[in-house]
């Protein structure tokens, strides 16, 4: 089978019929035709079609070691630097097609799964751990081009440092029973982006948040598993017009809470369970951070390029390139972009084989980039607002241009260099990226992509080899 | 007649039938029942009703010097510091009722009109100027409690310093003819908030932007004047539910472009025309800056209180009060709030009689506050996002709580201190203020309230008496 | 006796002969002629002489309630708002004379002593407390115009939250014995500015830092008390030329470590001892924070005026007023200055009588100002560096102007508006305030005046009445 | 001859006897024994000795293509990426030896000269240009290991955009005559660091600042040329003790104004003159920016490592590693360091041959790094001050430790982890880098290394290929 087309993806999703709730109603009918999901599904379908575009097919697929079929290159566990650069190219293609806007594009999740599976040997011989299940799932996913979402985080009930959940009924999902068929999960997980819109849900526990062994597990199950519910947040689609809502009409990915209502996870789907040590250590040792951060950084670079281009387009439209404060703001974006690129390149140049033979990019520059982006992305958005100024607000809709007042709009909304229609189109895009509910969710999403920025800062410092620099100072001071 | 009630306001607006275009359609039917406007109109009606609330009626009205009727206190031209403090109290009442969210509340526009009219003597004897018309309009407005919008700014075609409009057909509204009945205006003006939803439109030219004498005029005309069109931007109402959209459902004020399609402004409505010198100097000399900035600062203080309360509510809900970085962020809001209050008080303490006998607040502390708020408001909003974190995103709708999944929500979205329903309600309010299209428009609006912040900074410096401090340094240096 | 003259001050200090160590040597000879101290002592003497300047004598003194002699107004415990405004005026005189540069000017310390003494009733009936000693000291100080330093802080050995000192030999000064004559103190205190250069040292314990009851005490002793040693830090005097070092030549106050080498504090000098509760509570309840912060804020305003004047002088000298980024930076200083003034005025307007009948300024605006200044002062200094640019560096000395190369300097260092000599003089002043060792110590001093800024932020938030704002939001949300 | 030793350098400098003025006196005697210069000269001598250190000699020299002697590798015009990496290694050695503190280390100036000479072909056939002189000077310098300073900037008389110098007597150095022997220069140049302490002065005009052709020239002359004067700024040496002044005692480089008092520059020393077009274009086309920025960035990375090590040492000394705000500040330094490294690596990876066959590092990442460092270096210094807090101030001198009060210091200044002596030594180093007059000059120097940061931002933006990103957005919008 191998790499699927957009239509194959749509057909498979439409047959799934998972339990999704939105605005108080259970979703029914074809997902690809539902107003809440069709924009995203079409955008993802276009991504899958890229795999069959003769011009770039070879850059997006590789021959399956099992079947020889062309399978998605995001599944490739790189063994050489060339492999890594192939991965970069492939990720750039996916990201460019969506301008870096789609966070949970298939290549991201395939990368996550690959990173876990290519480190599966870690699980060998560990208690309550089943590496073979993880490898089998990965191979199945690769051969069938399965789509995934993941959920790592438990509900945000109480963020105090001293809090311990101790209610009788679980809030955070946990193993409440095990039997011959598998383990039984009850409780919830937070923020599965595209939850319910993928073949499978990958569920992993992240060690540091675990206080109960029962919350320490990893598995993958189909989205339509019995007892599995996806509860959507409010939609951020502004409308169907791609003039009015150029981004939200196509890229609203939806986030949902995942409820496990006594969900049976069959044994062959379990990677490990009830093992806090493994949950904590696996995430540290496996290549997840290296490969996931590599994919994310490439996407963020493409997104930054998009922001740079769009901001420059605003500048040209209203002719403000001459102002020094505009120049300084633009230089901030350029510095950000070039910095991200340099960090990416360094992570690739310094890639090295891990203990399981995979060519991991150096994770340090990627961590630095992750820290940085959580701060500079919101600033880029602010810069866009500051350059667009009041022009970001008084924007009529597409329908206005198809009405008797068109000639008024043409006359009064023209800009220095653009007709009114184009000017409004450009500013609406800037608005949708920086000021719509869709856009602000993007900001929050990038800010928290890898967790609380405050904690990321601490982690960076506490894991950094500062002592070698201390030694030099001590040497200078003869201490 | 005097101060009107909410119902009187609604009735009058409903009879107006101005030419408003939204989303390509001419608005028809009762404005107060139109989905785009009813929330705002009801909110404004509630404000007018305050004037008849026996508990505070005396703080919101004063006896008309003409009729003796109770008229709106926002029309009062203060002659003493007591008058000024009465005005503060009155503005606080209006602002508190809307949490500082409504920018163009009636007291703001009444204040603007009062500030112009109480400086009308300036226009005496000036060419093409008619102070008596301004005074008459003011008195009519006061006695009938007319509602206004205003428009000061010309379209943003080209923001280069060197740009001069030289097309044949006007873009910026200008006088294209004068005849026995009055002057004829053609062209457009930008950003009339609540445009079309008020009895009258106050049109003033602001001197510095004028390159043509024909663009230098001031008048007021009814919203339903022939040839006058209001073209709405896209609406930022998220929906009717005040659980889901607690702010936009009630406070979306709409902004519109005002088109003058050969509009005849009768002579008795003209305050001045074709006089660039007057346009420039009147704004400098009249009490507009002092009184308008006084009203705005009071509203912004109330809004900051609302932000402080709401942010603290987020903190309590998820129990993060113990974190030092949270404490530091909250101290930023507190410092902002206390600073604004101190500046307000100083402007009142240092009020003085102007040449026309009006007790003007000192404008310097108000300018400082205006500069400051354009920078700290966006930071407050950012702080709210940083404290709410990912919890700002995954928010189900009200309907979800009235559906079979309610018990899941109750269990999985509960917070440290609140049931799920309350927690979601609180976070939706924070989202609506900081991340919805309505909220981001608020941010942009506060940022640009008195114009480009960069220019405000320059103005503050260039008008500040720095030389007295230079002298002291010269003295110290014996120069 | 009453308010002393500069000469009286000098004579008294010269007779004192305290044990001061600087650069490894015990200081001997007349302090007023010692290169390390003479600049400061002359500057202080000039301040004392102000009290006899007929033009302002009445604004600097008041008749002693005991002797009727004119005594320093900084000793006045204000009973009315008029008293408070008199204090403001007096502080302005002192601060203006030294441009706000001298942090431990006599009015500061007199204010501190007055604030303790006017709250002495608090100590009545408390264990191991002797309010009568405090009042007696205050009266003596007032009648004799004694000069003071104070020391509140214990040595910075270990700043971890969990640290407890447990060595055998005390580091932080503590009571190691008591006998018929008094209590015996051994250990050290940190950072007595002007330590050894004043009649007395006021020693207070600040509650929150106390882990041992033996560290909880308060007293005042003469600087030449047996066993009392002052160990100076390195001097920041750049040289004697007031062209080259206009500030450090006159205002270097020196900071010293105070060592108590079994110092006997006579009973009549002890205010309280071995009482942690009193140490903690007295500081909270007494008027120290209100009056000290009032004095400090007035000084900081004068200093900000000096910075504003000097920065403008740089701008005029090199003719950069036209640049928007320069204008924006200057507006930052102006906003800071006006904000501080407004906060000061608010604290005075809202002054109220405390339980002991003293008219205390409202402490909240003063706390806000203190928080703010610790952040904006370093920014002001940075602005000065950014405006002065490379011109801050290449500055020849005064001697260069009295040498054969004078004509080269005159030609090549002239500025747009100033001869070379004046230009260098102006830039050297800017350098001495912002870049010399003296200047950077000033920055650090203002940054930490009232303690760690991070802790100040937390304190502000944790003591602020946020709940009333939460209530309004709850009301709006019907929670 | 080739690479010299420290002693050879000292001997040569001592024979030079240039006209240097400091503090109003003409310097006489051996420069290497003069208090103002001996620290620097010894530090430079140690750098030259590195070239003879058998362990690293091969990394610091290469065989002269003329003589075969080992000559300094900083003179190597790289032809391959391997050459470029050799240059990196060599620069790291020099920088590490001085912790990145010495800005005008010989490798910097050799690099500058190499970059000009290796682009000398540009001058071929240009009017009033003599490329052969430039090449000859370079070869002489390489073979004799000559030391240089340079001066590019004209005096800062008036920074207004509209200023034109029009006095009769020149301020900026210019050609006032030419004759058979050469050209005659009168006027001044600014800020020659180490001016008078080098064999030669390299004088270049930078195009954009030129309004008169007579100011457009380039040449090199010996420091003891007749009529050439160096006027020193005030010295920033704090003293001779390397405990008290660990940096300024060794690394104070001095800056001086260079006066040309009718200096005759022989024709064989002139590279070009009276040619504004060449002055402007040569700097753009030659490899100066690429190679100079490459050297500078490597040095700045080494300096950042030193800052990181020193700051960590402060943290360890007072035991504050546990505080989140400390962790966040340290992460800022780490992010800065890693970013600079990544940009350096990228510039090397993307190096390419220029039209004259030299392997130039890619200048864009270097420009980005230059922009960045001018902002982050001052922040690093601020972080050091914030972490050191009041402990940066109360620092006794070395002599204090060799005196009777040593035991007091030992007891009361001990830290959590260090004896008092070491603690004071560490803090004095932090003080000397961040707060002494030497340290603040370093800050200003790094901030302005490549010119006004505001202008650097504009240059970066205005030279950046933004249009390719605009095209992508236009494509997305179908414009």
Automatic annotation (TrEMBL), chains A, B, C, D:
Limits of the HpaB/PvcC/4-BUDH N-terminal domain: 6-271
Keyword flag Oxidoreductase: yes
Annotated HpaB/PvcC/4-BUDH C-terminal domain residues: 280-477
One example of a Gene Ontology biological process annotation: phenylacetate catabolic process
Gene3D superfamilies: 4-hydroxybutyryl-coa dehydratase, domain 1, Butyryl-CoA Dehydrogenase, subunit A, domain 2, Butyryl-CoA Dehydrogenase, subunit A, domain 3
Annotated SUPFAM superfamilies: Acyl-CoA dehydrogenase C-terminal domain-like (SSF47203), Acyl-CoA dehydrogenase NM domain-like (SSF56645)
Gene Ontology MF terms in the entry: flavin adenine dinucleotide binding; oxidoreductase activity, acting on paired donors, with incorporation or reduction of molecular oxygen, reduced flavin or flavoprotein as one donor, and incorporation of one atom of oxygen; oxidoreductase activity, acting on the CH-CH group of donors
Keywords: FAD, Flavoprotein, Monooxygenase, Oxidoreductase
Lineage: superkingdom: Bacteria
Residues annotated as binding FAD: 156-159, 193, 452-455
InterPro entries: Acyl-CoA_Oxase/DH_mid-dom_sf, AcylCo_DH-like_C, AcylCoA_DH/oxidase_NM_dom_sf, HpaB/PvcC/4-BUDH, HpaB/PvcC/4-BUDH_C, HpaB/PvcC/4-BUDH_N, HpaB_Deino-type
Protein name: 4-hydroxyphenylacetate 3-monooxygenase
Organism, scientific name: Ureibacillus chungkukjangi
Native organism taxonomy: Bacteria, Bacillati, Bacillota, Bacilli, Bacillales
């Amino acid at each position: 089978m191998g790499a699927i087309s957009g239509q194959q993806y749509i057909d498979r999703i439409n047959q799934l019929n998972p339990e999704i709730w939105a605005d108080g109603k259970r979703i029914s009918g074809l997902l690809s035709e539902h107003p809440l999901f069709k924009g995203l599904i079409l955008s993802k379908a276009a991504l899958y079609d890229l795999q069959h575009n003769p011009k770039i097919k070879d850059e997006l697929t590789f021959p399956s070691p099992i079947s020889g079929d062309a399978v998605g290159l995001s599944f490739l566990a790189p063994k050489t630097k060339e492999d890594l650069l192939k991965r970069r190219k492939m990720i750039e293609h996916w990201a460019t097609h969506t301008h870096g806007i789609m966070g949970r594009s298939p290549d991201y999740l395939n990368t996550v799964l690959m990173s876990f599976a290519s480190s599966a040997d870690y699980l060998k011989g560990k208690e309550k751990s089943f590496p073979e299940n993880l490898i089998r799932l990965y191979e199945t996913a690769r051969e069938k081009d399965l789509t995934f979402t993941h959920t790592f985080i438990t509900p945000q009930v109480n963020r105090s440092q001293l809090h311990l959940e101790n209610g009788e009924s679980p809030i955070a999902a946990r193993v409440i029973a095990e039997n011959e068929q598998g383990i039984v999960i009850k409780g919830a997980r937070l923020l599965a982006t595209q939850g319910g819109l993928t073949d499978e849900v990958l569920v992993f526990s992240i060690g540091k948040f675990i206080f109960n062994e029962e919350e320490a597990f990893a598995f993958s199950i189909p989205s339509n598993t019995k007892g599995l519910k996806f509860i959507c947040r409010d939609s951020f689609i502004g409308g169907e017009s791609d003039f009015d809502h150029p981004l939200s009409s196509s890229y609203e990915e939806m986030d949902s809470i995942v409820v496990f209502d006594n969900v049976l996870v069959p044994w062959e789907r379990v990677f490990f369970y009830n093992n806090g040590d493994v949950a904590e250590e696996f995430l540290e040792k496996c290549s997840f951070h290296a490969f996931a951060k590599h994919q994310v950084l490439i996407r963020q670079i493409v997104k930054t390029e998009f922001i740079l281009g769009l901001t420059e387009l605003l500048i040209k439209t209203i002719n403000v390139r001459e102002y020094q404060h505009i120049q300084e703001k633009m230089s901030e974006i350029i510095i950000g972009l070039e910095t991200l690129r340099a960090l990416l390149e360094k992570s690739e140049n310094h890639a090295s084989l891990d203990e399981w033979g995979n060519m991991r990019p150096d994770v340090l520059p990627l961590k630095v980039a992750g820290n940085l982006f959580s701060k500079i992305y919101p600033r880029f958005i602010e810069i866009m607002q500051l350059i667009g100024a009041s022009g970001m607000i008084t924007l009529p809709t597409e329908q206005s241009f198809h009405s008797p007042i068109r000639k008024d709009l043409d006359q009064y909304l023209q800009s220095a260099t653009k007709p009114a229609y184009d000017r409004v189109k450009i500013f609406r895009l800037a608005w949708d990226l920086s000021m719509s509910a869709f856009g602000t969710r993007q900001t929050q999403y990038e800010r928290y992509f890898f967790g609380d920025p405050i904690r990321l800062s601490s982690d960076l410092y506490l894991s950094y080899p500062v002592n070698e620099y201390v030694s030099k100072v001590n040497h200078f001071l003869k201490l």
